[in-house]
Design brief:
This protein has 727 residues and is an alpha+beta fold. Helices cover 25% and strands 29% of the residues. Strands 11, 12, 16, 17, 18, 19, 22, 23, 24 and 25 form a ten-stranded mixed beta sheet that branches. A six-stranded antiparallel beta sheet has the order 5-4-7-2-10-13.
């Protein structure tokens, strides 16, 4: 990539951190007929390039978010068809992730915002020309007077380009340039507004019927100089009023100052929001037409691969909410949420959701890119930041969060079967395991420092986010799990893992010594503790522990008490150990706290908190209450993997051999899942019938499967098969 951008210079303005978005311009006249023209470009900040006024490419918020210190993606666009007799190249530069409000002040940005570009033109006569960013470019202000992810955008349609000044040359750290790795972020679809109403407070609100991430696109109305000011919200409060206190300091406001032209449509250029509702805080017309507003859904251009449906409409809505949660948070990196002043790559969230993500969408490339950033931001010590790209350096590296280093590569390998991801991440995985292990001698050290524990679990003390399960217990369990995954990865890569096998044994023994009492029970009598012991192979007596977990749930009215960690693994911990019926009870639970409780409360995405909206309609808190946080969406892997029973075979990953073991339950009449894999489309479904269930399975021709029905397993080649299971 260096080769391509060596001639160009990084250019900026005299006031590089001004809130006004600048445009950089160059014009030229092609000297001959053009047979090819390629624009190569990147920026510190986010850019939009235009040739003769037309946008180049579909990549929104390019160059995307990476660990900017060492990795800055460069894009190339074939612009041959855009070349005319005279060419005007404009490059607009917004703050994006580089230096906006999203960057905490304590972390100085790497360098001033700037752009670098080359336009390589090949003529019919065989000659070529290269137009590069350099001293000869000019810059101007634009109508975008302010732009920021968190805070929104101010656009004055009366402002025109002008007062051109020569650019300033700056050091943009060329050594960080890398090729584009991830999918581009782009506008995927548009949703119409479905309702306009006046709230009890008298505010004018529009509802899109679905929480999305992206931006609102609207027709500009009003006399010259009048303002359209739009605020965003996820929910209405219990009285039906517009509520966005949970956005915290993210202003999420779009203001447009009109030039009197009512035929234009506008949407922000360098800002995105998470929202279902908008408030017309200022709107220069008494009449409001819903047809004048659309919600543009924006996310990484990942391909959908999984579909699930069943006879229960509430479960189907929950499943759709998981899909929307992923769509709303896979915006170049896996974010925790898209609305408040975070929108960061929280590692724990990605770790618990990765398996589900890989059912729903093809996320191999998406995670490959992000994991490289995780490695780039990994400390020398091996510690992993809690957010990647790293903005909040916490050198302690928390368990379950830092474990994204081992879990995500393994999940991606499991789902897609390409060992390259393991080869590339192996060192990072190993460094993480070594780091935790070497923190000190035993659980006190492993679980020490900054930890989040079973984050947001309901067994936490009133007002606390940390959960009742001992951090030391969880840290030890996760270290054991990390060793397991590292060992598995090492074996795939043909490495000698004896050191880690010994370590795994030692950690497993330490777990039992410290956290199993004289009666054989865990010292933390919580759902999450038993989930982890079972799921990570640490239970000294599996049937007894599984029965106890089932009992803890039943004694709690068939309700969860788990947070980020327990919730991600509870369904598998139950169904892998003979208690799928209890997992079904959790899934089908409609009362608070449960997944379907949020659905009954009107959720269209997955909530951060079980009690985001309390039964009486009040909110649990305004400080940390996202309604679009995918972590608890991990439940969808139970739908694909247990209800319909589609799982990869780790010995033949990527669904080369498929494990198909559906577990029906009489509380549903039917269920159906379909998954596009690297080896073709696999389908598994069942319906209730006289005396039991009719199960139908399709194995793609490119694969084999082990189909388990009841206690019988058969190995089959591609084809469609029917089975009967007694009720
Ligand atoms: C984020 C999370 C994250 C957590 C860590 C929150 O503010 O939104 O999802 O994992 O902090 O404790």
């Amino acid at each position: 990539m260096d080769k391509l951008l060596t001639k160009a210079k990084f250019i900026t303005t005299h006031t590089p951190r001004s809130s006004v978005v600048p445009v950089f311009r160059q014009t030229f006249v092609p000297r001959n007929a053009v047979i090819s023209a390629v624009l190569t470009i990147t920026a510190r900040g986010i850019y939009e390039a235009r040739i003769n006024g037309t946008r180049v490419g579909k990549f929104l918020f390019a160059p995307g978010w990476t660990s900017y210190k060492t990795r800055l993606q460069v894009q190339t666009y074939d612009v041959t068809k855009m070349i005319e007799q005279e060419v005007c190249i404009d490059i607009l530069l917004g703050s994006g992730w580089h230096y906006g409000h999203i960057q905490l002040e304590k972390f100085a940005v790497i360098c001033d915002p700037c752009v670098i570009a080359e336009l390589n033109v090949v003529y019919e006569d065989g000659t070529s020309e290269c137009i590069v960013t350099d001293e000869s470019w000019m810059y101007s202000k634009t109508p975008i007077l302010f732009s920021d992810y968190y805070d929104g955008e101010i656009y004055d349609a009366n402002v025109t380009y002008g007062d051109w000044k020569p650019v300033v040359i700056t050091d943009g750290k060329r050594e960080a340039l890398i090729e584009q790795e991830g999918e581009i972020v782009t506008a995927i679809e548009e949703l119409p507004a479905i309702n306009y109403f006046i709230t009890p407070k008298g505010e004018r609100v529009i509802d899109f019927g679905q929480e999305v991430t992206g931006f609102v696109c609207f027709r500009t109305v009003g006399e010259i100089g009048s303002r359209i000011s739009i605020d965003h919200a996820e929910i209405l409060d219990k009285d039906g009023n517009f509520y966005n206190e949970n956005y915290r300091s993210a202003k999420s406001n779009i203001t447009y100052i009109t030039d009197g032209d009512t035929e234009k449509w506008y949407h922000p250029v360098f800002s995105f929001q998470g929202f279902r509702y908008i408030r017309l805080t200022e709107y220069p017309s008494k009449d409001v037409y819903v047809g004048d507003f659309r919600a543009v859904v924006v996310h990484s251009d990942i391909k959908r691969t999984g579909w699930f449906s069943c006879s229960d409409p509430l479960v189907n809505r929950l499943y759709e909410n998981v899909i929307w949660g992923q769509r709303g948070n896979f915006l170049d990196i896996p974010t925790d949420c898209p609305q408040r002043n975070e929108r960061l790559g929280w590692t724990g969230d990605a770790e618990v959701f990765c398996r589900t993500a890989a059912y729903n969408y093809d996320v191999e490339r998406f995670f490959a890119k992000w994991l490289r950033d995780l490695e780039a931001d990994q400390a020398e010590s091996g510690a992993i930041a809690s957010v990647v790209p790293n903005m909040l350096w916490d050198p302690d590296g928390a368990f379950a969060w830092g474990d994204a280093a081992t879990v995500c590569p393994w999940e991606i390998y499991r789902a897609y079967g390409d060992p390259k991801i393991l080869a590339r991440q192996f060192n990072s995985m190993m460094k993480w395991v070594n780091y935790v292990y070497n923190k000190g001698n035993g659980p006190e050290a492993w679980g020490g420092g900054n930890q989040y524990g079973d984050w947001l679990s309901l067994d936490a003390e009133e007002g606390s986010c940390y959960g009742a399960t001992s951090h030391q217990l969880l840290a030890t369990a996760f270290l054991s799990y990390a060793c397991d995954l590292l060992i598995k990865a090492g074996r795939v890569l043909g490495r000698d893992m004896a050191v880690y096998e010994a370590r795994r044994r030692e950690v497993g023994e330490t777990f039992v010594q410290h956290f199993v009492d004289e009666n054989g029970w865990l010292t933390s009598d919580t759902q999450t503790a038993y989930v982890c012991a079972l799921r990570f192979g640490l239970a000294p007596d599996v049937p007894r522990y599984a029965a106890h977990l089932a009992e803890l749930i039943k004694n709690n009215g068939n309700k969860l008490k788990t947070g980020f960690i327990g919730t991600a693994f509870i369904m598998e911990a139950l169904s892998e150990n003979g208690y799928a019926d209890v997992a079904y009870s959790l899934l089908l639970q409609k009362e608070f706290p449960s997944w379907l409780y949020s659905v009954r409360k009107g959720a269209t995405t997955i909530w951060e908190h079980w009690d985001g909206l309390k039964p009486d309609g009040s909110v649990w808190s305004k400080d940390m209450n996202s309604f679009n946080h995918y972590a608890y969406g991990a439940v969808a892997s139970f739908m694909y993997g247990t209800i319909c029973g589609i799982q990869p075979d780790e010995e033949h990953p990527g669904y080369a051999n498929i494990k198909i073991a559906p577990i029906p339950d009489a509380r549903l009449d039917w269920a159906h899942a379909m998954l596009d894999t690297r080896h073709g489309t696999v389908i598994s479904g069942w319906e209730k019938c006289e005396g039991g269930y009719r199960i139908s399975v399709t194995v793609p021709d490119g694969a084999t499967a082990d189909v388990t029905v009841g206690d019988k397993t058969e190995h089959v080649a591609g084809g469609t098969y029917e089975y009967f299971l007694n009720a």
